[in-house]
Specification:
Elements lengths: L1 E3 L5 E7 L9 E4 L11 H13 L9 E10 L2 E11 L12 H6 E7 L1 H6 L4 E2 L3 H11 L6 E3 L3
Parallel strand pairs: 1-5, 3-7, 4-8
Antiparallel strand pairs: 2-3, 2-6, 4-5
């Protein structure tokens, strides 16, 4: 999920690499997660957005933005990214379960300049380019295929 506010900032969640080993560090992710039985990717995105940020929106408010495919061991994994524009949103993590709370180390609304300048690990790796596209052109008519990472 690529959540962008009226100030053209994108929301990222700071996530522990290993919450039982703080020295393992952290990474930054857009909100998102897995698809539950019977869900479409866009329904899962709306649910994950609610669970991870407290933002309640319908799947019809999300626009397909990008897709990434990559290998996780022997499996081919597909990540679908949807765009949601909001005026503003105060993040509420109250719906996180116990395991998610261990991994969640906070959040930050990132500007394009911050994304291009950071040396931190950010996923998707091509987020700065996606944000630039959204800020210049809005949501593309068809999802952008991201290079594998």
């Amino acid at each position: 999920m690529v959540l962008v506010d009226a100030n053209d900032r994108v929301l990222l969640i700071r996530t522990a690499v290993d919450p039982w080993r703080p020295s393992a560090g952290h990474e930054w992710f857009t909100p998102g997660g897995g698809i539950e039985q019977g869900e479409s990717p866009v329904q899962a995105a709306a649910r994950e957005l609610r669970e991870e940020t407290g933002l309640v929106i319908g799947p019809d408010e999300l626009r397909p933005l990008a897709r990434s495919s990559w290998r996780l061991r022997a499996d081919l994994v597909h990540d679908d990214f949807f765009l949601c524009r909001v005026e503003a949103h105060e993040v509420d993590t109250g719906a996180l379960d116990e395991i998610e709370r261990r991994y969640n180390l906070g959040h930050h609304w990132w500007t394009y300049a911050e994304l291009t300048a950071t040396t931190e690990t950010v996923y998707p790796v091509h987020l700065a380019a996606l944000l630039r596209l959204v800020l210049r052109e809005g949501c593309p008519p068809a999802p952008v295929e991201l290079p594998a990472h």
